[in-house]
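Continuing the series of single-chain predictions for the mutant panel. This is the parent chain; the variants come on the following pages.
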Amino acid sequence: MAERQPKKMTVEEFFEWQQRQDKNYELVDSVPVLLPKAMTGATARHDTITVNAILTLGNQLRGTPCRPRTSDQSIVTSRGTRRPDVSVECGKPEDHSMSASDPRVVIEVHSPSVSQYDRFHKLEEYKRHPAIKVILLVDSEAARVTVWRRQEDEWDYTEVVGLEAVIDLPEIEADIPLSELYADLTFRAAGRVLTAPPRSPLTPASACGACSA
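Parent structure:
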């Protein structure tokens, strides 16, 4: 059984405490907060998109200094810790670390149940992280991704829409076709039912010189 959570703690105390829990938490303003999906579980759509992202990136990054991470790995932010649905870490990680040391890309899959407040605050925390170069906010109900990209000291964003679109990620020398990201999902648009094709077979990994620390 999980122990009663302390009221306030440091990041180091939080990670030590988290190892004794049976559910995943984030540390927000020194207080552990249970992840919503830890209480109810992720929807099938959310889970499909998350797995598709990991498979697509994992295939391209195999054999390079970069690798996709699940929400079991935290990212230390200005307010504590966050657990993005998917992140890409580069460089040499510590085997027993509970947080990504050099996260370059963050992916959050959003659904109607996620509040605008939660989206805004997580986005701003990711923007302030010095290592993060790209943030992808993935819509689970439509083939649409908001891409936030660091340009020196500023952040710009673009909307990538449609199953034919591709998100280029030169920061890690990879890309994400939306047809791969939304593979096996069905959408409704203008009275029509659109189905993303099955995920394509694995292809040889590409080089990732930009990932070297």
